[in-house]
Amino acid sequence: MEDYLVKALCYKGSIRAYALCATNTIAEAQQRHDTWSSSTAALGRTMVGSLLLGATLKGEDKLTVKVQGNGPAGAIIVDSNGSGDVKGYIKNPHVSLKLNDSGKIDVRGAVGDVGVFTVIKDLGLKETFSGQTPIVSGEIGEDFTYFMTVSEQIPSAIGLSVLVDTDDTVKAAGGFMIQVMPGADEKTIDFIEKRLLEVPMVSRLLEDGESPEQILERLLGEGEVDILEKMPVQFKCDCSKDKFGTAIIAVGLDEINAMIEEDHGAEAVCQFCGNKYQYSETDLIELREEAIKNTLKGREE
Ligand SMILES: [Zn+2]
């Protein structure tokens, strides 16, 4: 199944809902970062959650989710936008803990249960907006839910799910977000709450071939879901040799001279996607010229 996200309105607009299949996207992140089971699930869930939050933005707008817990996985950083693009990394990709008491991948053990959950939104304005809540669970899904309810003040139910195979590859990944708008009636909310308890994990449903649309019907009631939009989602990094070149110029002349004279070249590695960029001595001499021009310009101004 291709990766995509659906946006829906239900119960006369009083319930807003999103669901997605992101199996290929999370599989690509797993391969690019060579993550082990607990790290795969932690990074994958954060990426799925970020895609859901990103879906509430307009196309060009973007956000960053940072999960900084006290566990061995270290920080998780994910960027997403309103067009379904996502990229992300986890500080320690090689965490693989024993299954937890429920027989599931131990995400809390990897992330930790004390720390900070931060969302920074860049809506193309002068300033960015950021919201922060404490990590309440470390299982990621509950942390997204807590953030939405407390920081964004939108009562929400969020499910994030990554099914990891025994060889660490991703079998299925996806999730949903249900938001209660003002004016939703109690009966509807009770009904959805009951459904939430009964529905199997999203990744299992996806593995069985169910679509995001079908998953929303399971959660919200058959015939109740009015799909507004379907949007592809994908792993996408916007790094390039030029961008890292600009970063090299910014480190200053001394550093660039050292790269030329001592190392006779340089390599930049993108944290988000793992792509590597090589700079030959000739490349570096060009960058040094740029750096010198910038310094002179700085003096003139
Ligand atoms: Zn990159």
UniProtKB/TrEMBL annotation:
Protein's GO biological process: protein refolding
Subcellular location(s) of the protein: Cytoplasm
Modifications after synthesis and translation: Under oxidizing conditions two disulfide bonds are formed involving the reactive cysteines. Under reducing conditions zinc is bound to the reactive cysteines and the protein is inactive.
Disulfide linkage: C237-C239, C270-C273
GO cellular component term, pick one: cytoplasm
Classification via InterPro entries: Heat_shock_Hsp33, Heat_shock_Hsp33_C, Heat_shock_Hsp33_N
Highest taxon of source: Bacteria
Keywords: Chaperone, Cytoplasm, Disulfide bond, Redox-active center, Zinc
GO MF entries: protein folding chaperone; unfolded protein binding
Keyword Disulfide bond: yes
PANTHER family, per database record: 33 KDA CHAPERONIN (PTHR30111:SF1)
Family named by the database record: Belongs to the HSP33 family.
NCBIfam families: PRK00114.1
Described purpose of this protein according to its UniProt entry: Redox regulated molecular chaperone. Protects both thermally unfolding and oxidatively damaged proteins from irreversible aggregation. Plays an important role in the bacterial defense system toward oxidative stress.
Record protein name field: 33 kDa chaperonin
Organism expressing this protein natively: Candidatus Enterococcus clewellii
